[in-house]
Amino acid sequence: MVRARDRDKACVRQQFDQVHLTAQGRIAVIALNHPQTVNALSAAMMRGLNAALDAVEVGDFPALILTDEARAFCSGANITKLPERQAEGAGETLERLYHSALRRLRNLKIPIVTAVNGATVGIGMSFALMVDLIVAARSAYFLLSFSRIGLVPDGGATWLLPRLIGLARARELALLAEKLPAEQALGMGLINRVVDDARLMEEEFTLAQRLADGPAALALTRRLFWDSPENNYEAQLAAERTAQNLASQTEDFREGLAAFQKKRLPSFSQK
To answer: The whole model's pTM is what?
Structure first.
């Protein structure tokens, strides 16, 4: 467990099944780490990811980076295990192994940055998109590979992609199963930034630090955006009203207002 008192250490590292959790300053970093399968999402890796998320949730971190320690972010589900799971059914395997972690990322109360290098394939693409900001190395690419093996996109991809890049482009990615280079993904609005490979770590920490230094209202903002596709206009106005009431009661709002009046930079406490 990563405790609050450990956050001030330069680097606190924990190892779970095929996943590493590092506390670097006040920022939590979850890294997928199984180079042998290019970070294929196995049952073991999902256990590790859930254990790392448990630690993040009790660690009082203001921001999270989701990344990898292999030559690619994720090669998708571990399809070598699919024959063993045919009796269970692919849909039931999805629910048992992957859906809970996807929901946890969606509902996490802190902002998340994904740093993508190399390939991001299949359901790995869905995990990469369950965040707030995505930065990719210039050599990275995305691939919805499901149709190549006779399956449909999963991990919420058919919900996420039309909302991020539009229905026409989402269909194209799913039906043609063509590689989407990082620069092209940036151009269509799928990701936020592309940097040279050597600068990926620097950029991911720059973005995460900006989020970590932000106000408590960032968690409310994250929730508003996640909930907005399910709301009509009036419902979203009501949700914003509720969130604004909560934000206006925080110490960070009082600090932000004082800083604005005194023409200085605010120093937020995430409270």
So the answer is: 0.91
Distance between CA atoms of 97 and 95, rounded to whole angstroms?
6
180/120 Cα distance (integer angstroms)? 10
Q: Which residue has the tokens 């590493």?
A: 20
Identity (one letter) of the amino acid at 92? E
Looking at the chain, the whole-number percentage of residues with pLDDT higher than 70 is 93
When pLDDT is cut at 50, 70 and 90, the band that residue 2 belongs to is very low
Q: Given a cut of 60, is residue 7 above it in pLDDT?
A: no
CA distance 93 to 155: 11
Using DSSP's 3-state secondary structure scheme, residue 225 falls into helix
Find out whether 169 and 188 touch, Cβ atoms under 8 Å.
yes
Number of other residues whose CB lies within 10 A of the CB of residue 245: 10
Q: How far apart are CA 22 and CA 180, in angstroms?
A: 30
Average pLDDT over residues 228-240: 96
> What are the extents of the domains in the chain?
4-212, 217-261
For the structural domain made of 4-212, what CATH number should be given? 3.90.226.10
Instruction: Return the pLDDT at 12.
Output: 79
